[in-house]
Amino acid sequence: MPDKTAYLSAVKRPPPHVAILLCTYQGEEFLAEQLDSFAAQTHVNWRVWASDAGSNDDTYAILRSYQKQWGEDKLILMRGPSGGPTQNFMSLVHNSRIEADYYAFSDQDDIWEADKLQRAIAQLERHVDPNHQDNPALYCSRTRYVDADNLDMGLSQCFRKPPGFANALMQNIAGGNTMVFNHSACRLLRSVHPDTDIVIHDWWVYLAVTACGGMVIYDPYPSLRYRQHSGNLIGMNANWAARRSRIRQLFEGRFHRWSDQNITALRQLKDRMTEENRKVLDLYDRARRSGLLPRLAYLAQAGIYRQTVLGNLGVVLAAVFNKL
What we know:
Elements: H1 4-9, E1 18-24, H2 31-39, E2 46-52, H3 59-70, E3 75-79, H4 85-93, E4 102-106, E5 111-112, H5 116-127, E6 137-146, E7 152-155, H6 165-168, E8 180-182, H7 183-190, H8 201-211, E9 215-227, H9 240-251, H10 254-266, H11 275-288, H12 292-302, H13 309-320
Parallel strand pairs: 1-2, 1-4, 2-3, 6-9
Antiparallel strand pairs: 4-8, 5-9, 6-7, 6-8
Helix pairs in contact: 11-12
């Protein structure tokens, strides 16, 4: 485990403040372990903003217990919207009371590695030009899958191709539970109307940051233990069952609807997007409304891609059947 004292002594200025954006719902079974992993962080300058979506189990009681232990300035409790995790997380993003140097999404049932925040902040500060602090920046990482008893099940897929907007239009490589982003990225997200119909919060962050020329750092180091259990809404996405599910969703038209939502949301950022990414978005949008041969030509010009060979074959197949 990294030495907390050595880490803090090496920092010449006060350590950056991190707002941990925690969403909960019926989370009594695993929540305490997640909260304990916050307390074990080597980066100590954090505050938890916990938004509960109407739990009727002991979730809120557990949060209150930790609030008494840590203090009301360390754990702030709120009643969040009940429309699902995306709505809940975005309500925290748009909450103007929450101001920090960095922001980290948190699910209720994971276990953070002790150096999760320290490592993310170090990488962000290493790669972001200090003369361009207004640039949006996002850190994300690989995860270690564990079962309900916290026993190892393997690692998530390690993405090899660079992050980018042409990739973000096709897939999300940035798991929300691994994300840490700077205040400039938060301001960017807040510039979009809070009632915008977002597919899922983490995909939206990846799309928005890359669209506007921000930096995305993908870390192959697993920053947390991602618990797989019957209550997971998403869970592992790299096995064959998940791949079959994505293929089925593709031909049922779900990805096409998601693309409609993403394009509509991105139009609010057009003035802030880079010129290159505006062209990519326009080509992708034009392709989706064209016949087969022009569609394939526009997609080739746009340069959209997924992270694997099979994934890119899927893009071609989806394009042929006009399911993008």
